[in-house]
């Protein structure tokens, strides 16, 4: 191989999910250990891997996606190496060890199919916008890959009394055991966030983390959900 190009060759497999650079996910696929991934995210693969868009398990959960929360998913199965990406976004790999993560569906790239997952309403926000905000909650023992529009910051809420405030359009994920409430800003509406009118933030408190990206999702997540 040409020496300059050799530096881009994939490293030996050391885990189920790994980053290849900052913008691509490498998944070690094995028969019986299926993966759910965002439709259209496959950029390359080695070996024998099959794809099934909108499998039955996803269709059952998709009934909740009338809320606007949810990403079209495909089931990936087989043996080999699978490479996924989402328009050059940063990829963040998480190994769940019996715990959970609540994810903005637009930032969900892939996760182990055996994990428990579903669409849940975020409590404490209904009074701010229609029926409130919905997120995809994933829990169990396994791997999850998220995307971020730029290098994210992971804030440890630390379990103290101080709250962590986040623009919902920049929110990627958070620990589901955190307490969440909404906050309106009137005086600072022209300074916080990029939307017009009132500015909303989400306040997190308790023991856990919040993942925030340096770019705001244009879907306006606190707008009315049907």
TrEMBL record:
InterPro entries on file: AIM24, AIM24_sf, Trp_RNA-bd_attenuator-like_dom
SUPFAM superfamilies in UniProt: TRAP-like
Superkingdom of origin: Bacteria
Pfam family, one: AIM24
Annotated protein name in UniProt: AIM24 family protein
Source species: Streptomyces bungoensis
């Amino acid at each position: 191989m040409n020496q300059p190009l050799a530096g881009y060759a994939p490293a030996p497999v050391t885990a189920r999910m790994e980053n290849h650079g900052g913008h691509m996910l490498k998944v070690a696929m094995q028969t019986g250990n299926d993966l759910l991934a965002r439709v259209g995210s496959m950029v390359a693969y080695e070996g024998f891997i099959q794809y099934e868009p909108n499998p039955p398990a996803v269709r059952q959960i998709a009934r909740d996606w009338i809320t606007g929360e949810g990403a079209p998913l495909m089931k990936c199965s087989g043996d080999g190496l699978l490479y996924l990406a989402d328009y050059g976004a940063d990829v963040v790999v998480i190994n769940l060890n019996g715990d959970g993560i609540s994810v903005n569906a637009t930032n969900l790239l892939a996760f182990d199919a055996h994990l428990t997952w579903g669409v849940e309403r975020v409590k404490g926000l209904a009074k701010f916008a229609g029926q409130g905000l919905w997120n995809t909650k994933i829990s169990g023992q396994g791997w999850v890959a998220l995307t971020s529009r730029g290098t994210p910051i992971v804030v440890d809420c630390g379990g103290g009394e101080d709250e962590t405030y986040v623009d919902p359009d920049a929110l990627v994920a958070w620990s589901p055991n955190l307490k969440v409430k909404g906050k309106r800003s009137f005086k600072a509406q022209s300074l916080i966030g990029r939307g017009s009118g009132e500015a909303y933030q989400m306040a997190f408190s308790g023991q856990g983390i919040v993942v925030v990206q340096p770019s705001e999702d244009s879907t306006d997540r606190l707008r009315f959900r049907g």
